[in-house]
Amino acid sequence: MKTATPRPLQAAQAFKKLPTAQPAAVGLCPQRSADLLATLQSEVDRQRLPGAVVLVSRRGKVALFDS
Predict the structure, then answer these.
(1) In sequence order, which residues have a C-beta less than 8 Å from that of residue 56 and are 6 or more positions away?
(2) Is the distance from CB of 47 to CB of 18 less than 8 angstroms?
(3) What is the pLDDT of residues 23-36, one digit of tens each?
(4) Burial class (CB in 10 A: 0-12, 13-18, 19+), 16
């Protein structure tokens, strides 16, 4: 009998295989990345969003991932 792997687990396993880099190493501004995360967190805190996941890829590498 086969068992299904939950989709979030599949996504997490797939993400582990992706190459990563620091934002500055691929030309992203670290301050703007931090501002983006702070803005989204503020919206979640104010209950305007139930939650958020951010994944930014540049030059074939994941430079920012947060939830």
Answers:
(1) 23, 28, 33, 62, 63, 64, 65
(2) no
(3) 999 999 999 999 99
(4) exposed
